[in-house]
């Protein structure tokens, strides 16, 4: 039963911002061709390590209710798919390149209406029986504030190997200077029989990004 809401994930803090911080140059996230991810382009999010059985990002459903999960396609027959392409919308609307550990909205390029939900990722599917938080759709693009905390994700480098561009998603929004949030990597936390559902996990799922050709 989805009894909790995302507002349980953060507490307001009275701490003030630290002064005199050294400015850090943003590091771009790279696609499989070694090019920075552009906010205006669409990309396929493909598992980096899949044992030949996982496809790209798609939609799944754990409950019979209208809670639509973000998932990896799972094909035991070994038939791979790119999944549904996504676009990234940085919290800073002036940013044209997606940077490591920056807050972004992740939007599926899904033109069909699924239970009237928007195609924007959000952390909001809490299951009381398992204590798991699932990534679902139904978020909102833009308007960084405490009311949109659930909609912001980050992309991080999975390892320090410069020869590979393996990345992970994680939830740890920094759009509110005075909020303390519960952070966690995004990995596989369940399945609906056909697809592997994503949520907060101790074991992050690893991905690469492939630009969709027009």
TrEMBL record:
<keyword id="KW-0732">Signal</keyword>
<dbReference type="InterPro" id="IPR002160">
    <property type="entry name" value="Prot_inh_Kunz-lg"/>
</dbReference>
<dbReference type="InterPro" id="IPR011065">
    <property type="entry name" value="Kunitz_inhibitor_STI-like_sf"/>
</dbReference>
<dbReference type="GO" id="GO:0004866">
    <property type="term" value="F:endopeptidase inhibitor activity"/>
</dbReference>
<dbReference type="Pfam" id="PF00197">
    <property type="entry name" value="Kunitz_legume"/>
</dbReference>
<feature type="signal peptide">
    <location>
        <begin position="1"/>
        <end position="20"/>
    </location>
</feature>
<protein>
    <submittedName>
        <fullName>Uncharacterized protein</fullName>
    </submittedName>
</protein>
